[in-house]
Specification:
This protein has 208 residues and is an all-alpha fold. Helices cover 70% and strands 0% of the residues.
Length: 208
């Protein structure tokens, strides 16, 4: 199986559906350690993404992902908009045409790098990075083990979900939650949680 235009579009649409379904929960998590807008931020962004995709006749998976990123940047005011926006644009640049499992892994690495270049978060800072980093590691380990795309994506999704859970005991060192200092401990990070949705959506659309 290759990651092609159809799969890219299915991934973004599945992510939008997951955001819609989990909007309330993302907002609740952000109410505990932020300003309570993470669910509505992403909801607004991905609603605009769906509209943008409806009018697109993409030449490759990269165009789908780049357009997704640009739309998120222009529609989401919170920290997560530029971070996910840059990540999707990096994914898009890395995937001009259909890609096998290894090439998709490199694209996912470029996405993480974009988040880190912009946000300067390290693993353990209680951010998106804490779900994306283990997801990427699990994805790469699976591919190195000979896994196909569905298996690698499933491994990544599981690791991202665990990574999000593992943010609970962390103290936030980036973003709004860092203003709380030690009071950010004991809550799951909203952005790591939405990243887990992103990887779960990838696993869903690639599952055979
Ligand atoms: P805002 O914080 O502006 O209200 P959101 O609520 O949409 O934006 O997103 C908050 C999430 O963004 C946090 O839970 C965290 O995961 C993520 N985040 C914030 N700052 C950074 C950063 N510097 N690097 C990576 N992720 C970050
Ligand atoms: Mg917020």
């Amino acid at each position: 199986m290759e990651f092609d235009t159809t799969l890219a579009e299915a991934w973004v649409r599945a992510t939008a559906a997951a955001v819609e379904q989990e909007q309330q929960r993302l907002t609740e998590l952000d109410s505990a350690i932020g300003d309570g807008d993470h669910g509505s931020n992403l909801q607004r962004g991905f609603t605009a993404v769906l509209t943008a995709l409806d009018g697109l006749d993409p030449a490759g998976p990269g165009e789908v992902l780049s357009r997704t990123g640009s739309t998120l940047i222009s529609k989401v005011g919170g920290a997560s908009g530029p971070l996910y926006g840059k990540a999707f644009r990096a994914l898009g640049s890395a995937l001009p045409g259909p890609a096998g499992p290894a090439a998709l892994g490199e694209a996912l690495a470029a996405g993480l790098q974009a988040v880190r270049d912009l946000g300067r978060a390290e693993p353990g800072d209680k951010t998106i990075v804490d779900a994306w980093t283990p997801a990427l590691a699990a994805y790469r380990a699976a591919v190195a083990d000979g896994a196909d795309l569905p298996r690698a994506a499933a491994a990544a999704a599981d690791a991202a979900g665990q990574g999000a859970l593992d943010t609970v005991p962390l103290q936030a060192r980036k973003g709004r939650a860092s203003y709380l200092g030690p009071r950010s401990v004991g809550h799951q990070d909203p952005g790591a949680t939405s990243t887990a949705l992103l990887f779960r959506a990838l696993a869903e659309v690639t599952a055979h």
